[in-house]
Amino acid sequence: MLDKIKDLLEEVKGLTAETAEEAEQLRIKYLSKKGIIPSLFNEFKSVPNDQKKAVGQAINELKNTAQESINNLKEQFEQSNLTSGASDLTLPGSQMPIGSRHPLSIVRKQIVDIFDRIGFTVAEGPEIEDDWHVFEALNFPPEHPARDMQDTFFINQDPDILLRTHTSSVQIRTMENQQPPIRAIFPGRVFRNEAISARAHCIFHQVEGLYIDEDVSFADLRQTLLYFAKEMFGKETRIRLRPSYFPFTEPSAEMDISCTLCGGEGCNICKYTGWVEILGCGMVDPAVLSNCNIDPEKYTGFAFGMGIERIAMLKYQINDIRLFFENDVRFLEQFKAES
Ligand code: DAH
User: What is the E.C. number (predicted)?
Assistant: First the structure.
């Protein structure tokens, strides 16, 4: 009997089936009540006592092996049923939602591209800065209000470590590391301790520009910014420079563009003046050049800085700066078409 069981064991190990039906037939053949294996249990009764242990173990092993291989066959068919059901080729494809660029990324890229065309490279600097790069080297007097806790987020005092309030700090880092000619722009995130409203946020983005070489003049500044304004807002755009004050430029100016909405006629956006302010600029103060070991007798340069949110708000007529930071998909998906 042991030999017979051994043969059967080999047999069930090599079972194969082409269909679920065939697998079921095998189950009936070997394992059903009247199948081969249960009938062995009947024969077992007549096995002599001294062989009972060995035969019993062999039958059990045979039964387990048969069950296992038939279950495996069946499982295989169940799985292929599932996959064939899932790949109904007539089903419409499922849509993959495509993300869109954030409007601030779109506008930053446009600004970078415009200045790239006239030879400005891009550099970045750290958001956590020291007093030297944000204030001291830029000629901010010690009592300047920007150095007050009310305007600046300090991380540490004495030594002062803070979140940069403007990207002008990257001007300093660039001039410290490189001798002229320097022609670069510095996009980045800045932080100010301000109450959040429709027009102001404590986090926003700027692009700073810097051009230092021999004989750089205010006319170069004006022409560069006129080029930028026309590229950004359209060929018909006009600019005007108004005298202003920044500690790090002398002379300093603020630049307005003719209103993008009414073209200068007067409307809500330009508060009926025909002009909207978009950036600050000026000739780099000789003291700032000296602070960075650049010879002010030999070199001159201009700088400018603008808020990316402000440019984007004008370009897309967005009236609340908070929209940029809320990540509301209904707002963001409107910019899908842009590259
Ligand atoms: N840093 C100034 C600000 O945050 C913007 C600015 C003005 C930058 C004039 C400049 C500049 O480079 O020349 O308000």
Answer: 6.1.1.20
Give the nearest ligand 1 atom to 165 CA.
4
Which 8-state DSSP code applies to residue 179?
Answer: P
Q: How far is CA 159 from the centre of its chain?
A: 33
Global pTM?
0.74
Name beta bridge partners: 210.
184, 303
* DSSP letters spanning 234-275: -TT--EEEEEEEETTEEEEEEEEEE-TTTTTS--TTTTTSSE
Q: Known binder of ligand: residue 250?
A: yes
**Of 133, 168, 172, 212, best ligand 1 pocket probe by most atoms within 8 Å of the beta carbon:** 168
pLDDT value at 75 more than 90: no
pLDDT of residue 324: 97
pLDDT reading at 82 higher than 90: no
pLDDT(56) > 60:
yes
Over the stretch 131-146, which tens digit does the pLDDT of each residue have? Answer: 999 999 999 988 888 7
249 lines ligand 1 (CB under 6 A): yes
Single-letter residue type at 182: I
Interatomic CA distance for residues 120 and 187, integer angstroms: 12
- Sequence letter at residue 76: Q
Prior bond of 159 cis (ω within 30°): yes
Q: Is the CB of 282 under 6 A from ligand 1?
A: yes
Sheet holding 239-246, edge to edge: 121-122, 182-191, 203-213, 300-307, 275-284, 249-258, 239-246
pLDDT confidence bin for 18, thresholds 50/70/90: confident
Mutation test residue for ligand 1: of 281, 284, 309, 310, the one with most atoms within 8 Å of CB: 281
